[in-house]
Design brief:
Length: 238
Amino acid sequence: KICMSLALLWPDISEITESKDHSECQKLILEAMKYHLLPERRTLMQSPRTKPRKSTVGTLYAVGGMDNNKATTIEKYDLRTNIWIQAGVMNGRRLQFGVAVIDDKLFVIGGRDGLKTLNTVECYNPKTKAWTVLPPMSTHRHGLGVTVLEGLYSVGGRDGSSCLSSMEYYDPHTNKWNMCAPMCKRRGGVGVATCDGFLYAVGGGYDGQSYLNTMEAYDPQTNEWTQVILKFILYIHV
């Protein structure tokens, strides 16, 4: 699933040409119009799309970051009790790192400790409340993008002196990192997501001062990146 800012959405869905040529889109648009234009009939038009959204995950984790106390802690928030509690402590300080979840374990990747860019990786097991140090990445990265697609991908970021186009893949079965094909553009503070077996890299900065409004897609089967044509404003830390 990909989350998008409301600023990127069209204010009038009827103006989108693609929706007019797609029967399924037309059905959804007609359903939404009826729901909003006929409030007295809403009780008869209930569906999964009309129900309030809610999280099905019991716990939210906040990891590391920066404060006056040089935070190394991990805290968890219980949605049922509305309480934050400390769940553990990392092996060192981190900010501008990447986080992902595989098999109910929390992976913390790269980042920086002050001015020092890191390539280290840690894994937190909520069941045992223990941290495990994993093999480091080949490249030191902060401001990187991290996502999961049959393993863990570490995308772009900065190495302390420049923005990066490189990407690495962590295989949890072999416990090893492998370099992948680099992106078409260098991207620091890049946003990443997966959809239908592809990895997407969105926006980011390429020289520390200028930002990109482009997106590219990675196919793990061919180990190739391709440009995706989009029209939106410049974004960093998407």
